[in-house]
Fold:
Amino acid sequence: MSAQNKALVRRWINAAYNKGDWKVLDEVLAPNFVRHDDASGVTGEGPDVEKQVATLYRTAFPDLHLKIEEMVAEGNTVAVRWTATGTATGKLRDIPLSGRKVVTPGLSICRISRGKITEHFVYWDTAAFNQQITRQSTQAAVAGAR
Structure:
């Protein structure tokens, strides 16, 4: 069962974040799916909340890729340590983006029931992420001060 649960979570990450394949989300997320992301404040219920989050980040980072660094499964729980990379060239809410490559590590804990993901707890360093997406290069800052 652990191998099946890991494959399900891997399929979800690849579809939502690496490919933008929203149809797969309806297959892998339970109708009562709940996302917990207190760091960014994006918390909600139903597969549509995950589609909104993935769309938000894939719009801001057109080359977004989540690399799975490690997966551990026990019972109905899968933990994934990942690294997200992408170039901040798109649009992220009203934040002017830096145009630079961003690297953000994170951890997702997923609960599985009846072959679907029912809950997703996500933890990541939003302070470092925000600094990367908005900072100017040192040269640009110095040139702007002249």
